[in-house]
Amino acid sequence: MKYEDFEQLKEECSKCNKCSLGSTRTNVVFGVGNESADIMFVGEGPGENEDLQGEPFVGKAGQLLDKYLQVIGLDRKSNIYIANIVKCRPPGNRDPESGEQDACIEWLRCQTRLIKPKIIVCLGRIAAQKLISEDFRVTRQHGEFIKKGNILFMGTFHPAALLRNPSNKPDALSDFQALRDKAEELNIKI
Ligand code: URA
Hints:
The protein has about 190 residues and is α/β, with parallel strands linked by helices. It is about 40% helix and about 15% strand. It has helices at about 5-15, 50-55, 60-70, 100-115, 125-130, 140, 160-165, 170-185, and strands at about 30-35, 40-45, 80-85, 120-125, 145-150, 150-155. β5 (about 145-150) and β6 form a beta hairpin. The mean pLDDT is about 95. It binds uracil.
């Protein structure tokens, strides 16, 4: 399906019942940010706070993400866009199943077609394996830029994983610094 604008896409997505997550959600968590951003971030799926507030990454992991963004001059409301692989909360914060990801991914594709980002950062394994490659290993491949079509993809640690395992924080910071350098190289204004 082709959508002409974001509002139409958002409206259609808010009624989605393509998978069973639609029956347990409070809100569809569509995305947040600048709809013509050059840099997009994609997480896994909404947690409890996101489900209640209808915005991605608003819990503890989101606060950590905001800190990393701030270090390199990015801000969720002004110069990036943030979305997830699935737009409805998997109950109990389990990983989204592959059938749920497949049911939802077309919404993200439509969003990406309208936003036309130059760089997509995958936050964590689920997003990286869905968008970059099935066998993506965050610990081995984080921070690498991989061109697919017109878009450069990079996978890094999920902020919730960094909260569980702070020893990866310096590597995550290097990935964000690499992102800033790449943006500069591509003349992306931050
Ligand atoms: N984790 C995610 O992957 N996405 C969110 O929106 C919140 C937590």
